[in-house]
Amino acid sequence: MDSMSLEPSLYTVKALFILDNDGNRLLSKYYDPELYPSVKEQNNFEKNVFNKTHKADNEIAFLEGMTVVYKSSVDLFFYVVGSPQENELMLMTVLNCLFDSLSQILRKNVERRYLLENMEGVFLVVDEIIDGGVILESDPQQVLQKVNYKSDESSLSEQSVAQVIQSAKEQIKWSILK
């Protein structure tokens, strides 16, 4: 084995993807452009991983020279992929952080329909956990705090819009009654 490949690196995660119970891609991020450069190669890898793991009870697999940790929930499969010498516990920590964060955002309804309805939040969670293959955060509470901060700003503006609309309704009502 090449000594260069064993040197420690911050670039821990090679890919992260979420598939539905038919193996169709709902979300995927590949952080190593040399790993699977084309979408076709990515889809083939995802199908292969899904076929090998969707009926298994394990949490870790070694496929195509990659370490894959995975978890399923109702009709979703979550995968985190690392290099062959990557620490499985690090990858599992990322997977658990992703799952726990999404569980909170989706209010414990971690299933396809709710995931698709909240895809913006899902992308925010993924981006808070991993950036370019580097693990930024592994604590779901910290991820939620950062994501909620952003979503609170948008809900405040939505609340302000609702207040403006209500105020306009009141003004129209009073102008008609006069």
UniProtKB/TrEMBL annotation:
Domain AP complex mu/sigma subunit as annotated: residue spans: 12-150
Tree of life domain: Eukaryota
Keywords for this protein: Cytoplasm, Cytoplasmic vesicle, ER-Golgi transport, Golgi apparatus, Membrane, Protein transport, Transport
Compartments (UniProt record): Cytoplasm; Golgi apparatus membrane; Cytoplasmic vesicle, COPI-coated vesicle membrane
GO biological process: intra-Golgi vesicle-mediated transport; intracellular protein transport; retrograde vesicle-mediated transport, Golgi to endoplasmic reticulum
GO cellular component: COPI vesicle coat; Golgi membrane
Topology of the protein relative to the lipid bilayer: Peripheral membrane protein
InterPro entries in the cross-refs: AP_mu_sigma_su (IPR022775), Coatomer_zeta (IPR039652), Longin-like_dom_sf (IPR011012)
Predominant place of localization: cytoplasm
UniProt xrefs under PANTHER family: COATOMER SUBUNIT ZETA-2, ZETA-COAT PROTEIN
Subunit organization: Oligomeric complex that consists of at least the alpha, beta, beta', gamma, delta, epsilon and zeta subunits.
Family, as annotated: Belongs to the adaptor complexes small subunit family.
Known role: The coatomer is a cytosolic protein complex that binds to dilysine motifs and reversibly associates with Golgi non-clathrin-coated vesicles, which further mediate biosynthetic protein transport from the ER, via the Golgi up to the trans Golgi network. Coatomer complex is required for budding from Golgi membranes, and is essential for the retrograde Golgi-to-ER transport of dilysine-tagged proteins. The zeta subunit may be involved in regulating the coat assembly and, hence, the rate of biosynthetic protein transport due to its association-dissociation properties with the coatomer complex.
Name of the protein in question: Coatomer subunit zeta
